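Researcher: We're teaching a course module on how sequence relates to structure. For the next exercise, students receive a sequence and then see the predicted structure as tokens, so they can try to spot secondary structure elements on their own. Here is the exercise chain.
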Amino acid sequence: MRANFGALGDAVIERYPCSHLNPISGQSAYVAAISAAFFTCPSRRAAAAAAKSQTEPVYRYLFTHRYDYGPLFALGAFHTGELPFVFDTFGALAYIPTPSESALSKSIRHRWAAFARTGAPHDGGALAWPRYDGALDNALALDTDAHVVNGFDDAGCDLWDSVQ
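Model: And here is the predicted structure for the students to work with:
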């Protein structure tokens, strides 16, 4: 962390700690730090800026699903991991989605299509995708148990925002 983040290294280690006894913990901490720095926190900044400067609603999501089996399972939730769910292109990965993953894919496709049609990403189900509110820093966590999250990694994003 210190080698990659220089003077910010100690603060990154404090926010994304790991155990020297567990090398997987170190890798996970590094992945969490990089994910926050390059994906989660920039999307928070963009959503907050757009919500402040326009009248059109802003919607934010976090794809939190870990593939249920196979080689992709080891990656956890990852950037672009949602694309086969959005476009129903599991065959390109030689992956057969489980029933719960098929339901997630259908929900995502319906939400994206509704957003294109109406400007609101609703899938007709009970869980509404809330409009982004910077005070809540809310997002829809897209997973087989989709749910609304508020303040996802706020402490990490505050750290990254301090060096932007």
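Model: If you want an answer key for the exercise: The first helix runs from residue 2 to 5. The mean pLDDT is 92.
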